Amino acid sequence: MDSAVVGLIGTVVGAVSGVLGTLATTRLGGTEQRRTQRGQSEREGRSIAYSNLVNECSRTYRIGYAAHVAVQAVPGVQRSPHLADSLAGFRPAVDAALEAVSLVRLHGPDKVARAANNLASAMTRWCREVEDLYDGQGDEQRASEAIELYEEMEERFLTLGRETLSPELVR
Q: Fewest CB within a 10 Å sphere: which of 82, 87, 142, 160?
């Protein structure tokens, strides 16, 4: 082989390896970029779902607390005629919060979804206890325990949500 052919073969091999290297780098870079964008989109979805649940829980708490206070029996005091109105908003508020829980369950992760489920269970129990108080079949001690459990589960959800969205800020 003469040196011109060897030079030509060297040039072709160099060009092919350069093209392959460029393609590999582009592919890897694109994969990393897609992974980064997917991660960012996932965090944004979680943030929206978590915020929505926190907002619904805050609204439910305000409505539920007002209803709870309104139904507490005070000896010798007749119930307000507006008592049913106070209670009427509690169940729909709980239902709205349960819808928000569904979004959190979709976005996860599992530990946050479980915390949201526990929060939903505590919220539903509290509402049921307040409704039982209204019907004259409830127990104030159970209703008070239910609100305490709700508050505990809400705090647990908030903590896990913060850790999931901003792990570096929690440390």
A: 82
